[in-house]
Amino acid sequence: MVTRTERTAVGLDAWLAEEYGFAGELSPIGGEGRNFVVTTSEGRRFVAKLDEDGSDWGEQDRAIDAAHSALAPLGVALPTVVRTRAGLIESMRRTADGRTMALRLLNWVPGVPWLESGPPTAARLRDLGRALATLDVALARVDLPAARRTHHWDLAQAARHRPLVKEVRNADLGTNPRYVRRELADWAFHVYTACAGPALPALPHSLIHGDANDENVLVDDGRVSGIIDFGDSLWNPTVCDLAIALAYAMLELPQPLDAGAEVVAAYHAVRPLSADELRVLFPLVLGRLAVTVVTAASRRAIDPNHPTWFITEDRAWRLLEKLAAFDPNAAATALGSGAGLDSASAHGASVPSLLEHRRAHISSALSIAYREPIKMERGSDQYLYDDRGRPYLDLVNNVCHVGHCHPRVVKAGQRQMARLNTNTRYLYDELTQYAERLAATLPAPLDTCFFVNSGTEANDLALRIARTHTARQHLLVVDGAYHGHSSALIAASPYKFMGPGGSGRAEPWVHIVPMPDGYRGKHKGHGLAAGTAYADEVGRVIAEAGAPIAAFMTESFQSCGGQIVPPEGYLATAFRHVRAAGGLCIADEVQTGFGRAGTHFWAFETQGVVPDIVVLGKPIGNGHPMGAVVTSRNIAASFANGMEFFSTFGGNPVSCAIGLAVLDVIRDEQLQSRALELGTRLRDGLRSLMDAHALIGDVRGVGLFLGVELVRDRATLEPAAAEATELVNRMAKRGILLSTDGPLHNVIKIKPPMVLTADDVDMTCRVFDDELGRLGLTH
Ligand SMILES: Cc1ncc(COP(=O)(O)O)c(C=O)c1O
Question: Which atom of ligand 1 is nearest to the CA of 627?
Answer without folding.
Answer: 10
